[in-house]
Amino acid sequence: MDDKKMKVLLYLKKSSLDRSGKAPIMGRITLGRSIAQFSCKLFCNPDLWNPRESRMDGKSREAVEVNAKLDNLLLAVQSSYQSLLAKGLPFDATDIKEHFQGCVQSRMMLLERFDDLIEEMKGHVGVDIKENSLASYRQTRARLQQFIRAKHKVSDLTFSQLTEDFIKQFEQYVIGEVGLKQSTCYNMAVLIKKVCKLAYREGAADSLLFDNVHVDKGDSRLPKALDKDALDKLKALRFDGLDEDMETARNVFLFACYTGAAYCDLMALNHKHLVRDDEGALWLKFNRQKTGVLCRVKLLPEALRLLEQLHSDARETLLPYMNYATYLSCLKAISL
């Protein structure tokens, strides 16, 4: 094979456009008279594809990312060619394809790709996701690592080692042994599937793992409402400084009851959100973080008393910040 040069051509398969109008990027390895085609697991708008350069035109974020992945892919193909050449045995284009695809699949690890996804999502904070959403990625990653170490006795798994029952085993572990809710498990499974889908598109997995695996969303019943007696009992609780977090959680929850505001909106409230009407009554005026809808809430006397109680010159926000997980655990501890 020394006298035969390998050629790699990248092209678009325009006959297989996806719903967004993008075409899959394909590769063709030619060695002598042998030819092998493969999918790059990447997609491109046909108008942005440069067939002469075999890459995307422009300097957009998408173009930079796709071109970088194509460069890595070409390096992997070239590395496989050199490895087979060094063995001194006959091989063809199909052997090169199988070698480089096997190398990619065998070296990419699940938790490693999850870490990359977390790094990618950091750039989305404040744009299309919130910091709390990023925390769910980290929590899922931590539980996944815990599961792999407990059940597989290794620090990480390659995508080629994952079987279709992996998700179900993970579900049984986090619900049965860790004690998480079904709804929490469902949210974690969604993120795991997302990582696997990315790995498939990048060529790190040879199949779309867990695409047909169903994980139940959990109890969809409406939350139980507090009646007046329960609310009065909650207001009457005394902590005497023994558990500051629990008292803060109780007060934040009461303020939510009096205003109807969501947790994420409460944590963002500051003095600029307080306005007075013509009669001197104090109102909250803010845009909901989730929908952007403008909200106006007249503050009840109970809410005003809580604001005065929780006031601090050391911070700009109206209420003390409390991590959502801590907030929920405190409410659970006082039987809410």
Automatic annotation (TrEMBL):
Gene Ontology BP, a term: DNA recombination
Phage integrase SAM-like domain segment(s): 110-210
Pfam families found in the cross-reference section: Arm-DNA-bind_5, Phage_int_SAM_5
SUPFAM superfamilies membership: DNA breaking-rejoining enzymes (SSF56349)
Domain Arm DNA-binding residue range list: 10-97
Keyword line: DNA recombination, DNA-binding
Entry protein name: Integrase
Annotated organism of origin: Tannerella sp. oral taxon BU063 isolate Cell 6/7/9
